[in-house]
Amino acid sequence: MPKQKTDDLLALIQSLTKAEKRHFHLFARRNAGADNRLFLKLFDVLDQRGDYDEAFVLKKIPDIKKSQIANLKAHLYRQLLTSLRLLGKNEDMALREMLDHARLLYNKGLYRQSLDILGKAKTRALDGAYTGIALEALDFEKLIESQYITRSLEGRAAELSHETSALSRRIAATGAFSNLSLQMYGLYLKNGFARNAEEYDHVRTYFQFHLPKTPYTELDFWGRVYHCQSYVWMHHLCQEFGPGYRYARRWVELYEQQPKLKNQYAPLYLKALHNVLNILFHSLDYPRICFYLDKLEHLPGEIDVGQDNNTEGLYHLYRFLHRIDLHYLEGTFAEGVNIIPELVKCIETDRYRWDDHRILVFYYRIACLYFGNQNYHGAVEYLNKIINQKTPDYRADIQCFARFLNLIAHFELGNMTLVEYQIKS
After folding, report:
1. Which pTM value belongs to this model?
2. At 251, phi and psi to the nearest 5?
3. What's the CA gap between 400 and 383, in Å, rounded?
4. Backbone torsions φ then ψ of 33, nearest 5 degrees
5. What does the radius of gyration of the chain's CA atoms come to, in whole angstroms?
6. Where on the phi/psi map is residue 354: left (φ > 0), alpha (ψ -120 to 50), or beta?
7. Sign of the four-CA dihedral 121, 271, 228, 213
8. pLDDT tens for residues 188-223?
9. How far is the C-alpha of 91 from the C-alpha of 94, rounded, in Å?
10. Using CA atoms in the order 394, 178, 257, 249, what is the torsion angle rounded to 10 degrees?
């Protein structure tokens, strides 16, 4: 098994909760064959050790031959995913399971039973805004109806064709706005805000050229979400915070109007709140920041933010970001630095697997907290983490700001020789 795959296996094992590990043991022991005992023993060794040492594994489990180990690791990885799949509570996973059951019944020639399940899956998918799964169920229905004729085929064929066309148009419109949103986010990651008239014009022209023609009123839930996202990113890049706030608020309101979707799509609801708060911070709108931050802080009482590691990680990511922003606005830097140890621990332990961009932003915000509290050594420590990155190919604005702030911090520390050197470089 290649090193990357081995690292993936270890990362998966380390991400498991106690309940998930207990379930895996019960799942693995359902058949007491020799192979099961071996991959379970391998799991226990890797779980206890935390890293992979092949010599240690072979010594610890003499029954494993060196030639077996690659296949055994691959088998363990698949079994872990299967175990997690059985524990999964996501609505989309439940819907796909219904499609799997329909396929099994179809393979048995039990067409009517398969159609019954597909009809229920399609209705449930449309209620939960899973348009892609609904279309997949619909395509399967058409396949079965073409072979199993007990109804008025003429009427049924027209009905299925109409449903397919309508869903396909909705998915195409949603995909177009989803693409635009991702493209605008890519521009932001690469360059940050538009800093002059030329960059401003480039962003606006790029946006208008790629803007889909479908009106907002004809979009489904997801189409409207991505429509709002696209405009939020465009206005954010252009630093037009008033219009940006209107679209970000509309994004939040889409979830407020359908409360059941808040928990079902918690990561995107969190993202909506984050974007509102981010725009309000740049607008220096203190009262509204307090309102939406309070909404974010009390969200665990409304939805299950700990439903999975991804949702929990996003919740704490945004909570840290906007608590720091509030300290900036209030000028309470001495109080703000008190949250740094907890934040740094999350980063260093990789508890939530935040990406490099998120960590870069946190380093800069930590440096600003230290600078505001006149702890210039602390500021320089975190600014150097940004400046000394090996591949700084994103957020050119933060890369630039970090160098300026680093100069000022060294000036405050009296490191004049270093300041002169850095100015030249």
Report:
1. 0.79
2. -60, -45
3. 11
4. -75, 165
5. 26
6. beta
7. negative
8. 888 788 889 999 999 999 999 999 999 999 999 999
9. 5
10. 40
